[in-house]
Write a structure and sequence with these properties.
Structural class: mainly alpha
Strand content: under 5%
Number of helices: 12
Radius of gyration: 21 Å
């Protein structure tokens, strides 16, 4: 990536430039949200590891989702917090590419993990007798490792094409982190190939998992409607409520950023939607998956019990 005949050394991030009287409030708000995200997702992981009752495919995928959310928020929020007091926040060229790589990798991985969790619910409800065979440890590992490989390849493809562009003199990014869409808008050279790649490759890693989720739940709904008892229908479908809430929150904000027409583009709307899926969604996931889940609430209580928490996790060797 070049600026005219010179290499770019840094970008200016102007997404969260606020007045001095608002800096402390904004800083404390996002710091608290980051800490809640880290602690909440870490507790989910520890509870799943600690409780043998949760050693199942459903919670294996949930633990991976929580780990992904920890990495996802750490990619953007610490840098954002460091930039809030600055009047002219900058990020180096290498730092921008690194942040963009991990951001695209982890957001794509989120999509695949939600699809894997939808598959888990489909098998559990529609083929309960074959659950252990269809979701054996080898297949569960494959459902996590394969998305890592695909997401890596897609992120590398985007960055490789981005490095071929020439950036105009304007290096101000109206965002609080390095995202692909705002940087493409700084290019003086033709971005048709980049735009096509975003539409095809980026669309595929979002809409293929999303379509799989929709189809899975369509089949689940048909199966649930076949249950004669109203109580049985509610009990069966209630196991999907947490997952559906997380899906709606993530995909609603992603579509708002990447897949509305260019004529409808708004930097402010972009920032609001980005805050939702980079900060709010990872923060809400631990609450979504724990407050409505009796097994998870029980595991968290046992984790915090004196015997489990203080002796197993905090006891000195």
């Amino acid at each position: 990536m070049h600026q005219g005949n010179q290499s770019i050394s840094k970008f200016f991030l102007l997404g969260l430039t606020v007045g001095s009287e608002q800096q402390k409030l904004i800083f404390m708000l996002f710091l608290c949200m980051y800490l809640v995200t880290m602690v909440g997702n870490l507790l989910i992981i520890l509870a799943i590891i600690n409780d043998a009752h949760l050693h199942s495919p459903m919670y294996f995928f949930l633990a991976n989702l929580s780990f992904n959310d920890i990495c996802f928020t750490t990619t953007t929020i610490p840098k954002m917090l460091a930039d809030i007091p600055s009047q002219s926040p900058t990020i180096s060229f290498a730092g921008c590419l690194t942040q963009m790589y991990f951001f695209m990798l982890l957001v794509d991985l989120d999509n695949f993990l939600l699809a894997a969790m939808a598959y888990d619910r489909y098998v559990a409800i529609c083929h309960p007798l074959h659950y252990a065979a269809l979701l054996n440890p080898k297949r569960c590992a494959l459902l996590v490792v394969t998305p890592w490989v695909i997401s890596n390849l897609v992120s590398i493809l985007h960055l490789s094409l981005l490095s071929l562009l020439t950036i105009c003199d304007q290096r101000k990014i109206p965002h609080f982190f390095c995202d692909l869409e705002p940087i493409l808008r700084l290019a003086c050279s033709d971005t048709q190939i980049n735009d096509l790649t975003v539409l095809v490759a980026g669309g595929a890693v979002i809409f293929i998992p999303f379509t799989f989720i929709i189809v899975s739940y369509a089949i689940i709904c048909c199966t649930v409607l076949g249950v004669t008892s109203a109580k049985g229908k509610w009990r069966t479908f209630s196991t999907c409520g947490s997952h559906l809430s997380a899906v709606a929150l993530l995909y609603g904000s992603i579509v708002g950023v990447y897949f509305l027409p260019s004529s409808a583009y708004s930097a402010e709307r972009d920032k609001v939607a980005a805050i939702i899926y980079t900060i709010v969604t990872p923060m809400m996931n631990p609450f979504i998956y724990s407050l409505r889940n009796k097994d998870m609430k029980g595991a968290l209580r046992r984790l915090f019990s004196k015997k489990t928490f203080f002796w197993r996790w905090l006891a000195l060797p």
